[in-house]
Amino acid sequence: MLSVTTTFTVVVATNSEKTMVTTEKINSQPECVTTLITEIDRVIEVDSDGNIVWEVTGLDFPVDVERLENGNTLIVESYEHRVIEVDSFGNIVWEKIFEDNWFPLDAERLDNGNTLIAVPYQQAIIEVNSAGVIVWWTLVFQPWDVEKLDNGNILVADTYRVIEIDGDGNIVWEIAGLENEDAERLDNGNTLLADGITNRVIEIDSDGNIVWEKTGLFTPTDAERLENGNTLIVDTKFNDHRVIEVDSNGDIVWEITGLHLPWDAERLGDNQPPDNPSITGPTSGAVEKEYNYTFVTIDPDEDIVSYYIEWGDDQVEEWIGPYASGEEVIVSHTWSEQGTYTIRAKAKDICGVESEWSEPFIVTISNPPGAPTITGETNGKTGTEYEYGFTSIDPDEDDIDRYVINWDDSSPEETITGPFKSGETVFAKHTWNTYGDYQISAYAVDVIGLQGGDGTLNVIMPRARALLRFFDMFPILQRLLQRLAQ
Questions:
Q1: What secondary structure does DSSP assign to 136-151, as a single string?
Q2: Count of CB atoms within 10 A of residue 285's CB?
Q3: Residue 11 located in a structural domain
């Protein structure tokens, strides 16, 4: 994505006063993985180096942020008692404004276009439509975080427990004794919790058993399990606010510090790797002959890609490209020795995410068979059938698949199909019906598919001697017949 440095200022009206909302797009380089973070008065989007690539300022304690599928951003602005949706230019395209004593803390845009909102001080979870009208609600004690599950239930983190409720508000699952700021149901069925009492992030199974944890935190307010298996954590402490990414061992692999009261973070651009490349081209070939191979991959994110190719002979192509996703890339290669080689390739997108290796593509490289030796009558008579022998020796002892013979007259090429052993003599018969000088030519093709050079044999089919003597006696007639024949 390319952007230019541009600042947009939008004045929006609330139920109380006008609020200045400013956005700024800063980065002009492609960013594959960024992180949305809320601070006390703004929402920022940072790249992997911590550089701000987009921000919304002029906010009043935003505590939750979500990048929507349409590219807009959903923000819970708690102290302004509202939930807003802004576009990439900072324009507010949707908002739900609450009464002054309502302090929303979490919001989620649902598949049906409605928005699920947690309002803890009203001890309520509500669902509003695009017009802001409440279409569903239920009472829950101080819900801090809500998530609509695939089964239609709602996962709720309240002050002292995590619960799952159905559409009627009935509790169908509960783990008590935890002060949860955030809860997330994982793909494996476990639940990830930001536990503020013990200053840790834990993963629990359906029975409440801890199966993973990250301890030694200050006050974790948000936790998100990433596509790469790591965990993104918002960790707050006076004058030491940070967002960290930890691996499965709890080791910090990424960190941004110096933040001002962060509360929520969301990792964007969990980039998908390109598909494993496919390879097409000849499966056999000759030594010191160049062959073309086609490589192609599809990148799910439509990123441009490069290819790393191993030819099986210690020669590689190191990240050639870039090419468009789906573009067929033709690369040539020459093998200098006889043998069986395995070509394989992998693709890498512009974000540096690599595919797995392609399926192995096997190529057999050998030497072509030698030019056939042709034996047989070299001075014959028209109308008489003669037999000729054809013998080719393959330097790799490969069998000969076929001989192709050109008799140098009006008859079509003749193919003698084997297989035949290397050095084995194969016979074919032919009759010339017109006198003249002929050159028999033939080549051999081995079972690998390699074609050798041409072998030749010159053959003369002279005119009859009596006829020659007749023409010697009447040269004028001979010249006349020659003219008529032209």
A1: EEEE-SSEEEEEE-TT
A2: 22
A3: yes
343 and 386 part of one domain: no
Residues 250 and 149 in one domain: yes
d(CA 116, CA 128) in angstroms, rounded, equals 7
For residues 247 and 318, membership in a common domain is answered with no
Nearest-Å Rg of the Cα atoms of the chain is 40
Q: What is the DSSP letter of 354?
A: B
d(CA 166, CA 155): 9
| Residue (of 48, 3, 49) closest to 24 by Cα position | 3
Domain that residue 406 falls in: 373-461
On whether residue 103 sits in a domain, the answer given is yes
What are the tens digits of pLDDT across the range 193-239?
Answer: 998 788 999 999 999 999 999 999 999 999 999 988 999 999 987 67
Report if residue 486 sits inside a domain.
no
Instruction: Determine contact, residues 11/17, Cβ cutoff 8 Å.
Output: no
pTM of the full predicted structure?
Answer: 0.59
- Per-residue confidence band for 351, with pLDDT thresholds at 50, 70 and 90: confident
**Residues 453, 353: one domain?**
no
What angle (nearest 5°) sits at the alpha carbon of residue 288, between those of residues 282 and 289? 40
Separation of alpha carbons 162 and 175, rounded Å: 5
Give all strands (DSSP E) within 177-315, no chain letters.
Answer: 180-185, 191-195, 200-204, 210-214, 220-225, 231-235, 241-246, 252-259, 265-268, 278-280, 284-286, 290-296, 305-310
Q: Which residues 6+ apart lie within 8 Å of 95 measured at CB?
A: 12, 82, 83, 84, 85, 132
**Whether 99 and 212 share a structural domain:** yes
Contact 288, 336 (CB under 8 A): yes
Here the CATH number for the domain that contains residue 20 is 2.120.10.30
For 286-295, write each residue's pLDDT tens digit.
Answer: 899 999 999 9
Q: Are 287 and 363 in contact (CB under 8 A)?
A: no
In a domain, 473, yes or no: no
Q: Which of 272, 293, 296 is nearest to 355 (CA)?
A: 272
The total of structural domains in the chain comes to 3
